């Protein structure tokens, strides 16, 4: 258990405890190894073929949507129309085969983003 506590300490923020509930995706990403890498390659293959600016727009939109669970709040944070967010999320779905509005897919997408970030 102390291994987990040591991992969590790296993500602690001032005034807020680092808990497994807050950082499960990062912990899982670190522990997936080769399986995580294969998952990212497969799921992001089509997304990776887009221009870098589009990749960034889609992943930023996805990340905020997964954090908030709200198209309206995502649009507010990105200073764009909610239809823009809906269109970007549809592009994520068509590129990855995973729909962020479906809980199981949303979990997979969150893990995918964490594995991708850990690889950088």
Automatic annotation (TrEMBL):
One Pfam short name: HTH_30
Signal sequence, renumbered to the chain: none
Gene3D superfamilies the record matches: PucR C-terminal helix-turn-helix domain (1.10.10.2840)
Record domain PucR C-terminal helix-turn-helix: where: 58-114
Protein name: PucR C-terminal helix-turn-helix domain-containing protein
């Amino acid at each position: 258990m102390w291994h987990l506590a040591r991992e969590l300490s790296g993500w602690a923020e001032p005034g807020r405890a680092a808990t497994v509930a807050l950082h499960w995706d990062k912990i899982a990403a670190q522990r997936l190894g080769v399986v995580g890498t294969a998952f990212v390659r497969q799921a992001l293959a089509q997304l990776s073929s887009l221009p870098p600016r589009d990749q960034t727009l889609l992943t930023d939109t996805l990340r905020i949507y997964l954090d908030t669970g709200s198209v309206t709040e995502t649009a507010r944070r990105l200073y764009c129309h909610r239809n823009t967010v809906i269109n970007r999320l549809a592009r994520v779905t068509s590129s990855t085969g995973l729909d962020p509005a479906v809980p199981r897919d949303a979990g997979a997408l969150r893990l995918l983003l964490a594995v991708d970030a850990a690889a950088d």
